[in-house]
Design goal:
Elements lengths: L2 H7 L3 H21 L44 H5 L4 E2 L2 E2 L12 H5 L3 H4 L2 E9 L4 E8 L13 H7 L11 E5 L2 E7 L9 E6 L3 E7 L2 H10 L40
């Protein structure tokens, strides 16, 4: 058999390769258009007019206000020190600098509970003769009323040398037109000694001494809350339309004494 017929019947290698490429392209196209299997995730088309809700952003929480803490450092307070007089009843008042005494606002504030946490500065003064000691503190925050000092008076008295807690020994009174708390003449207080405690809004004073006259002079020299002005009583209204028969009757002063003839 002639060889050229066998050659014509045998496919050309280029034709075979070209056919294989066409088949491969068809298979790839079919795979690319095939529907996803049951395990594959199918993205859902967006619905017209709908928007995906935004992820909420956590709101910032307000930071809590820090609670006041006692101050165990004593900073100079010239304005507070200037309130203390230089002399009383002819005696010199010693006013040591804060660096000369070891007491701090926090030390005194421990006797005044939560109020003592607001003590910011302290001034100390004393008189040798007659014996007198004064503690003056500046209070931060809201103004302090003298009446609110009542729960702390027993501990304050103990701080200045009173043996034991005796809140009943304190009495509200008026000195030099100021509302104050006073203590003295009780069994736990040294004979002749009196104590005073009062507020001037932003200041609190604790005073003790062996001379009540000197103590009152110090109260008079320092600021304080004025005593309330008493409300005047309304004057009686004269009664109108008195009977004419009473017009000529004698007054009680003009009547004769009982038993007179």
């Amino acid at each position: 058999m002639p060889t050229h017929l066998l050659a014509a019947a045998r496919p050309s290698p280029w034709r075979t390769a070209g056919g294989f490429c066409l088949v491969l392209a068809a298979v790839l196209a079919a795979c690319s258009t095939a529907e996803p299997g049951p395990g594959s995730a199918t993205p859902s088309p967006p619905v017209a007019g709908s928007t995906r809700p935004a992820t909420p952003t956590p709101s910032a929480q307000p930071s809590p206000t820090p609670a006041p803490t006692p101050r165990f450092t004593n900073q100079p307070d010239p304005q507070l020190e200037a309130l203390i007089p230089a002399t009383i009843v002819g005696a010199h008042v010693e006013k040591p600098a804060p660096s000369e005494f070891g007491i701090t606002p926090g030390d005194v504030g421990l006797r005044f509970g939560e109020l003592g946490l607001r003590f910011e500065s302290l001034a100390v003064a004393f008189v040798e003769k007659p014996r007198l000691s004064l503690f003056a503190v500046r209070v931060g925050g809201a103004s302090v009323d003298t009446a609110t000092l009542r729960p702390y008076l027993a501990a304050a008295g103990q701080y200045v040398g009173i043996n034991g807690l005796h809140p009943e020994a304190w009495r509200a009174t008026i000195v030099a037109g100021k509302r104050v708390w006073r203590r003295g003449d009780d069994a736990a207080t040294l004979a002749g000694t009196t104590l005073y405690c009062w507020s001037a809004g932003q200041y609190i004073f604790l005073l003790t001494g062996s001379s009540d006259a000197a103590n009152r002079a110090m109260v008079n020299a320092l600021p304080g809350q004025p005593a309330p002005t008493p409300t005047p009583r309304p004057s009686p209204t004269p009664q109108a339309g008195a009977n004419s028969s009473d017009a000529g009757s004698p007054t009680p002063a003009a009547s004769s004494a009982p038993g007179a003839s």
